[in-house]
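Revision sheet: structure tokens.
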Amino acid sequence: MSRSIAFRLLASVSLFAMPTAVFAQTQSSTAEASPEEMDATGSEIIVTANKRAQNIQDVPLAITALTGDTLRDNNIVEARDLFQRIPNISVASNASAGQLQLSIRGINFLSFSPISVQPVLAFVDDVVINSPQSSGLYAFDLDRVEVLRGPQNTLYGRNTTGGAVNFVTRKPRIGEEANGYIDVSYGRFESINVNAAVGAPLGEKAALRLALQSLHTKGPWKNITTGDRQGDRDQTLLRGQIVLEPADDLDIRLDIHGGQSNGGQRGFKGHGLLADSISLNPCTDIDTDNFSSGCVDFFDNPTISNPAVVQSDVRNDRDNIKALGSSITVRKDFGGANLTSITAYESNTYDHWEDSDSIPIAFVNFRQYAKTRQWSQELRLASPDEGRFKWMIGGFGFWENVKFETAVPIALFDPTVAFSDNNKVDHDTEAYSAFVQTDYEISDKLTFSGGLRYVHEKKSGLANYQFAVGLDALDINNADAFRFDALRAYRLPQTQNYPKPFGKSWSMWGGKVGLQYKPNSDLLVYTHIARGAKAGQFTDSPDAIGNGGFFTPAEPETVISYELGFKSELMDRMLITNLALFYNDYKDQQQQISYTDGSGNVVSTVVNVASSETYGAELDMQLSPGGGWQMDASVAWLNSKTKADSLAALTGGSLAVPIGRSLTNAPKWTLGGGIRKEWEFANGSNLSAGIDGHYTSSRNFDLLERAVDPIYVTDPSYFLLNATASFEFGENQRYRFSVWGKNLTNDLYFQNLQEFAIGTSIGFVGDPRTYGVTLGVSF
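Predicted:
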């Protein structure tokens, strides 16, 4: 779609914006927000982002909150769809469906390793989902989603330098009658989705809630090489919760959740960079915007513009995740203090096999298998919400074990395999931290806040490696042939001195100090300085073990953030406006890189590449003028650039970070807009219709200075247009019929791009146009 046309369309819509999304800046409480307190039409919004329940407009922090009703109204059933609606946040993707990689204000880490720790982490009911493989799985039956922008260290035991995403589930409620809902959707690509939940009392002191999500699709992309669909998905997830209240001052919540998500890799698309495959002259017809180009790759494969068409030689690509978790949350009121204990376990098994080159002949594939087990314990003791002086102290323990294997088979352009690097690693993480947070009301209008957290983290384990050659009898379509033990049994590689131990520990600190000025009930002005730190980490790359680069991990990265914000509620909450200005001093940024060292060895590892700065502004508005109208708008501006390069010294000059280069996945502009109208009829039925759009300016996916044109790794600006209409009828509007469409202009956009050494630029493409209908019933 023409970017100028898209921008004008968005500008006209964006005076309003996303239909029922709630934008704001927040802090929270020891109590949990109830559904009755959550409303996206101008009523008070309660969040628990900072562990205390508060009105979202009363808290000095940049946050966006989306209510469960908003998600249901807009047919948002997958986590990656949430973030089209939030300023200064961008999504990157790889071939896996369950992974979630986010960039907030330019802070991100482009790696999907099973041992990578993202600077923006996902939390479900205060439990961190540390594993990238399952971070996006549990976005169903939600009360709300809270997205916090900026470093989160003081109140978050698993530290983040970019931000945090809190998925808050709907809880059982003691005293309520049986209730629930079921939504069944059918859409393009033969997708059939079911979301359902039921809650019920268990006597006078307990309640139960069960939730189900079932997603099935044949896949949005057609593989023209094999004739198969790509991106197919069969996903079934369950959650069960029981709330017990044995005494008035004690409540206990038990949670168990899990399921599986099986299918194939997401769409991988290539743009040729050559005029022809004979002369190998560079193509002058590069069009990474629409892929409308006559360029070819080294093997004369054409560039295909259709967003729903891809090329791949692998027939049995695999992207399977099995996950299981549980938690026990205990809250005890001692009168002068409230104690919260959260004991949690999370696990997943990840089984992945993909074609990594986006060409229709065998060349480069990627095999990974990982088992992750995570335990965590959090304790918080907090003062009551009343009083001029409020405090909170606590501790956090985190233990994780990841056993993973990675193989990168290289084929000689036919179904037999020539050689493969592969590893087998047993990786442990231990982290312990303690924190204190205080808030003091200097006067009725002025409040001081300060907090500090100390963290000690250790990573250690055993790393095994082999380089297997002469694999001519192995079939590229047999994924299990490339497991570590299978390769060893087949060829018995002569690899010496493995496995080898590794380990490193770090001590870090983070915190925040700030002031909040509230001259009246409708206005808040705040400022703060926050420091975030993220521990060092190792790579999952097999060759790094063989050449020794694995055993020198990246050191911790830090972000010092300065923020000034304004929040207002005008005309009896008819107009809500929030503005945030920020500056981030980003040091020792971690990044996964590949380069050739002085001995000619290819080294893939995680290093600290640069020091950078990001600064910008975020404005969001919500207007509810009455008459069934709801309008929202958001505008975010981001400037990011590198200030110092540390990579040239690490790589002996093989690679460098250009000073002044914008950070990866950090678009300068993100805009959102939408408008929604409801009509109520005399018989009690309700008709609603809404349209929303999202604009993202161009973003690059490679921070480094290479001998390639930057356009090869830059995703041009794109615009996504979505619409929905819904009719609710019956007693208490219990029945619902909806029609919806996403990416209605079928815009081509990417969630990752890289230049590949066969004359092509390759990347993971976003979803093409989808549409469908939903039938729902509530009770």
